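ok new one. same drill as before - structure tokens go in, u give me an amino acid for every spot. 99 of them this time. try not to just spam alanines like last time pls lmao
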């Protein structure tokens, strides 16, 4: 989600991370909670994580490193995630340019 879009300025200025914490979207998956663990992974265009995302990613990367046996796995994961955010930012900027 592009939090720099003009339609989100008001919400973004009110509180950091407010766009990423749209609880209504989480309710969509309530039916799955009986059989699955659901964790939304949300980040804004400035790599601000939703409140529950950072601890989840930390736990996930530790498990990845344990399974692979390489402690650098955590760094690789965050580097890849950063690239995904950068690509999203680039797409956001390109979409706002009028040609």
């Amino acid at each position: 989600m592009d939090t720099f879009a003009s339609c989100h300025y008001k919400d973004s200025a009110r509180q950091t991370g407010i766009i990423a914490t749209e609880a209504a979207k989480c309710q969509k998956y309530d039916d799955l909670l009986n059989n699955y663990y659901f964790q939304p992974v949300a980040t804004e265009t400035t790599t601000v994580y939703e409140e529950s995302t950072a601890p989840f990613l930390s736990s996930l990367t530790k498990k990845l490193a344990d399974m692979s046996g390489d402690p650098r796995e955590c760094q690789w994961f965050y580097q890849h995630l950063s690239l995904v955010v950068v690509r999203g930012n680039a797409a956001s900027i390109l979409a706002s340019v009028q040609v």
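The two ends are 22 Å apart (CA to CA). and btw The chain has a mean pLDDT of 78.
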